[in-house]
């Protein structure tokens, strides 16, 4: 396992400020459970308006959670005042996404100066049961914030 070192000692606060400030993250109710260099866990509550009639989340919200989690894992390694933008992501739905909430666990696969790749797995939580419902990869473009 590769040991990644954060370039920003305040990476967790910077990441929380960035993600919690995004309207889409607020709408989906995303929240961090764990933020460490290279590792991020996020949670998203079930919302009826994002589900099928059978009570399973659609692939879109699951993909969004996966994207934010894997991208945030890559974000833990960025220098101060840098950001990331998704340039590609792949989601494989493995089981129906049924639960009271969903937890994604993300990690960095590759951390480069301009491109990083993260991976994440999404689990549906129903009571004390966890079901792996999706997995995927996210490719991120890293950039200095003054480039916006």
Describe the structure.
The chain has 148 residues and is of the alpha+beta class. It has a single domain (11-147), classed as Thiol Ester Dehydrase, Chain A, CATH 3.10.129.10. Helix content is 22%, strand content 43%. The protein is built from three helices and six strands; from the N terminus they run H-H-E-E-H-E-E-E-E. It has helices at residues 11-20, 23-28, 59-75, and strands at 31-36, 39-45, 82-93, 101-111, 115-126, 129-144. It has a six-stranded antiparallel sheet with strand order 1-2-4-5-6-3, with helices on one face. Strand 4 (101-111) and strand 5 form a beta hairpin. The longest helix has 17 residues, at 59-75. 33% of the residues are buried. The mean pLDDT is 92.
Categorize the overall geometry.
elongated
Structural class: alpha+beta
Task: Report how far the terminal alpha carbons are from each other.
Answer: 34 Å
Beta-strand proportion: 35-45%
CATH class label:
Alpha Beta
Give me the Rg, rounded.
Answer: 15 Å
Number of helices: 3
Order of helices and strands: HHEEHEEEE
Please give a quick description of this structure:
The protein is of the alpha+beta class and 148 residues long. 22% of the residues lie in helices and 43% in strands.
Task: List the topology elements.
Elements: H1 11-20, H2 23-28, E1 31-36, E2 39-45, H3 59-75, E3 82-93, E4 101-111, E5 115-126, E6 129-144
Antiparallel strand pairs: 1-2, 2-4, 3-6, 4-5, 5-6
């Amino acid at each position: 396992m590769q040991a990644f070192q954060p370039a920003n000692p305040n990476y967790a606060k910077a990441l929380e400020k960035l993600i919690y400030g995004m309207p889409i993250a607020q709408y989906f109710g995303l929240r961090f459970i764990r933020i460490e260099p290279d590792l991020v866990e996020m949670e998203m509550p079930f919302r009826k308006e994002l589900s099928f009639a059978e009570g399973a989340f659609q692939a879109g919200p699951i993909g969004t959670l996966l994207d934010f989690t894997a991208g945030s894992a890559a974000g833990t390694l960025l220098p101060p005042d840098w950001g990331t933008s998704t340039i590609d992501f792949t989601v494989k739905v493995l089981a129906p996404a049924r639960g009271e909430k969903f937890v994604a666990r993300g990690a960095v696969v590759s951390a480069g100066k301009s491109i990083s790749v993260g991976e994440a797995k999404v689990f549906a939580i129903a009571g004390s049961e966890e079901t792996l419902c999706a997995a995927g990869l996210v490719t991120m473009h890293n950039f200095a914030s003054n480039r916006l």
